[in-house]
Amino acid sequence: MNPIPVPLLEVDRLTVAFPGHVAVREASFAIAPAETLALVGESGCGKSVTAFSVMRLLPPNARVASGRILFDGNDLMTASRPEMRRLRGRHISLIQQEPMTSLNPVLSIGVQIGEVLRRHERLSRRATRARVVELLDLVKIPDAHRRIDDYPHNLSGGMRQRVMIAMAVACHPKLLIADEPTTALDVTTQAQVLDLLGDLRRELAMAVLLITHDLGVVAQWADRIAVMYAGRIVERASIVPFFARPMHPYSHGLLGARVDVDAEEHYLTDRLTEIPGSVGSAAGETGCSFAPRCPMVQPSCRLAPPPLLELADGRAVACPITAAQTGAPHGAAVG
Amino acid sequence: MGRRIAATFKRTAIHAAPTVLGIIILDFLLLQLMPGDAADVIAAESGTATAETMAALRERFGLDKSVFTQLVNFLGHLATFDLGFSPRYNMPVLDMIMTRLPSTLLLMVTALSLALLLGIVLGSIMAAWAGRWPDRVLSVVVLLFYSMPGFWVGLMAVVLFSVKLGWLPSDSNMTIGANYTGWAMIADRAAHLVLPALALASFFVAVYARLTRASMLEVQRQDFMRTAEAKGLHPFFIQLRHALRNALIPVTTVAGMHLGNLLGGAVVIETLFGWPGMGRLALEAVLARDFSVLLGVLLLSSFLVILANMVIDLLHAWLDPRIGTT
Ligand SMILES: Nc1ncnc2c1ncn2[C@@H]1O[C@H](COP(=O)(O)OP(=O)(O)O)[C@@H](O)[C@H]1O
Ligand code: SF4
Ligand SMILES: [Mg+2]
Questions:
Q1: Is there a single domain that holds both residue A242 and residue A224?
Q2: What is the pLDDT, as a whole number, of residue B2?
Q3: Which residues of chain A have a CB within 8 Å of the CB of B245?
Q4: DSSP run (H or E) holding A281
Q5: Domain co-membership, A117 together with A159
Q6: Total domain count for chain A?
Q7: A225 and A316 co-located in one domain
Q8: Quick one: angle between helices B182-220 and B259-273, nearest 10?
Q9: Which candidate in A98, A102, A171 is best for mutational testing of the B interface (most B CBs within 10 A)?
Q10: What residues of A are in the B interface, CB distance below 8 Å?
Q11: Ligand 1 centre from A10 Cα, in Å?
């Protein structure tokens, strides 16, 4: 019943700490080749830190306290720096959250896209330029021949994010990490950029780690979902069962009253519903970090952080109360 | 690219014209406030002046006219590139300045290039090892150069390299009477240039090094640095192409603002090293109350600063594609 026979990426009990603050706690998940996993959770819960850990591009003050990350058979935690540089941009790429600041303002977009090709494919200057024009066409930037010499400030946010996508898919990576690729864009542009990403994902058969807090996007896009709360993964499930029957009380809260998997107006509606309380109140970890906001809280919840319990069908939930209600735990705790 | 830089050039040129006129008039009026004139100095030196000869001198040099008439005359001459005549040296001011200008230009350009080059290299090294020993050692060195006046650095360099070690000359801009040609001449000129250029540059090296360090560290936090790393580029390449180019924008801005100071420093350094440039000419002109020469020097200096600022603006436009597009 294991849904991932040979994972492309396997993150195993990853813990990342900043001075005086643990941003990610014991996070475990896996992504199969060509599969899309959505990582969902409210702002500040540790999604970007998780993504940066996979690329080994954490801020200098962050430290991986424990955990293992396997990519395509390589242990990324012990890989040498040159090995990491060979992987980055070629087999794993990253699209960052903020298109306004993630492109270098003083270099033309042609140069910035060309860089990754020249680095990994050792193309000539002329061949690089031809490939960059192709890539700009691929991401549907009109008039690619002329735009190639534009600078980021000449482009709108949506166009910049297309440039970021062109850069990320240039070398046909096996894994694309998209960190809230549309959060900074307006609604219409969001839909266009997401459609583009969806097409490319299928054409290039890329696995995608899609970080978002838009459940409409998740419903339309992802194969599986991992819900993160205060640095922990609190629920993992395939998309259809998750939307049909969310288990963790936080997932319930996220879904609010209703989400229809087949709904047409996907990313136009269905933003995260407000849940009473805030993540800040969950900082000191004595029991379940969701306890202060949980409608189902029991006295036992405040004793120890609940482990992620594996259930049937590859589901897992970090809440013994709901796990007990919906059927006996299927396997051992994994994190 | 070319169009953008041309637009920048046009904009700065338009700004420069009224600035120059303002500077001329202000200089002229300020000099009128100084006590004494050339006639006083010449008379004092000859020791036998009478009221009649003084009046004759003043009439000959046009010093007896009203301030306003003198200004109008001066501006009229200026329109035909005539800077007037030096009563003291008995030759056209423009000729005097033109014989001095190349030396000063050589000194300034060398000092500014040295300051930028050393400052940027030192600043980048400090940023790359921020908080570790290379940064700490260099920070102390840079602080020393920041706090020592240029003339004192120059004096100490003369004592060490000319007097004690005898490695480098410290007087004038060439060996007088040696009549070198070809490479020997260039080597001789270069050897004479080293100490004054370093003395003049020392303070600015410190300024640019500190600035480069700060802006390089600032750039490291930007998102686009992570984008560059996510492409698998080598860190050295990332620093050179992505970080330094951005960090240089504030450095060139400040370099432009310091050009006037650099020229001011040149007066002191030229006097100290016997460098036959405009700075020393200015000092001599003040002592002789030779206002036409002084005015010419001030005018040429402001031209120099404006011209250099235009060069800096163009450099700026080349570095930063956001400039000049409007
Ligand atoms: N550079 C940093 N220094 C200190 N703390 C950080 C830094 N970056 C992120 N954090 C902390 O890590 C936590 C997770 O951040 P992040 O992964 O960016 O959240 P998000 O889920 O919104 O992407 C936050 O609580 C944040 O305070
Ligand atoms: S463990 Fe308790 S507090 Fe935590 S989510 Fe489950 S019921 Fe709520
Ligand atoms: Mg984030």
A1: yes
A2: 72
A3: 104, 106-107
A4: none
A5: yes
A6: 2
A7: yes
A8: 140
A9: A102
A10: 52, 55, 57, 84-90, 93-94, 96, 98, 101-108, 112, 115-116, 119-120, 151, 153-154, 164, 167
A11: 22
Alpha-carbon span A130 to A143, nearest angstrom = 14
Do A134 and A182 share a domain, yes or no? no
* Share above pLDDT 70 across residues of chain A, in percent, rounded to a whole number: 87
Q: Minimal Cα–Cα distance from B261 to chain A, Å?
A: 29
Rounded average pLDDT over B28-52: 74
Confirm or reject: Cβ of A298 under 6 Å from ligand 2: yes
On whether both A179 and A203 belong to a single domain, the answer is yes
pLDDT interval class at A302 (50, 70, 90)? confident
Indicate which residue's Cα is closest to atom 6 of ligand 1.
Answer: A18
Q: Which stretches within B239-324 are classed as H helix?
A: 245-257, 259-273, 278-287, 291-319
For B223, the closest of A101, A112, A167 (CB atoms) is A101
Same domain, A14 and A75: yes
Supply φ then ψ for residue B297, to 5 degrees. Answer: -65, -45
Fold of B99-287: MetI-like fold (1.10.3720)
Contacts across the A-B interface (CB distance below 8 Å) = 78
Query: Are residues A318 and A221 part of one domain?
Result: yes
Tell whether ipTM is more than 0.90.
no
User: Which residues have CB under 8 Å from A251's CB, separation 6+?
Assistant: A227, A234, A235, A242
Amino acid of residue A4:
I
- Provide the pLDDT for residue A318: 93
Residue A211 CA to ligand 3 center (angstroms) comes to: 8
**What tokens were used for A237?**
């499930």
Q: Is residue A148 part of a domain?
A: yes
Query: Which residues have a Cβ under 8 Å from the Cβ of B234 and sit 6 or more positions away?
Result: A85
A164:B229 CB<8 A: no
- For chain B, give every domain's residue range: 2-92, 99-287
The helix (run of H) or strand (run of E) holding residue A242 is helix A239-244
Q: Which domain holds residue A152?
A: 99-170
Name the residue of A14, A21, A57, A228 to mutate for ligand 1: max ligand atoms within 8 A of Cβ. A21
Is A225 within the bounds of a domain? yes
pLDDT for A54 equals 95
CB spacing of B223 vs A108 below 8 angstroms: no
Q: State how far the Cα of A83 lies from the Cα of B219, in Å rounded to an integer.
A: 25
Q: Among A170, A195, A222, identify where a domain stops.
A: A170
Q: How far apart are the first and last CA of chain B?
A: 13
Residue B277: strand, helix, or coil: coil
Count of CB atoms within 10 A of residue B159's CB?
12
> Is the minimum CB–CB distance between B164 and chain A shorter than 8 Å?
no
Given a cut of 50, whether residue A66 has pLDDT beyond it is yes
The pTM score is: 0.81
For residue range A259-272, what is the model confidence (pLDDT) as tens digits? 443 444 433 344 45
Q: Which of B281, B279, B288, B283 is nearest to B260 (CA)?
A: B279
Q: Which of residues 225-284 of B touch A (CB under 8 A)?
A: 226-234, 241-242, 245-246, 249
Cβ within 8 Å, pair B227-A85: no
Read off φ and ψ for residue B157, nearest 5 degrees.
Answer: -65, -40
Same-domain status, A179 and A161: no
Shortest distance, CA A116 to any CA of chain B (angstroms): 5
Confirm whether A334 is domain-assigned: no
Exposed, middle or buried, B267 (CB in 10 Å: 0-12/13-18/19+)? Answer: buried
8 A C-beta contact, residue B28 and residue B292? no
- A277 in a structural domain: no
Among the partner-chain residues A84, A90, A103, the one whose CB lies closest to the CB of B227 is A103
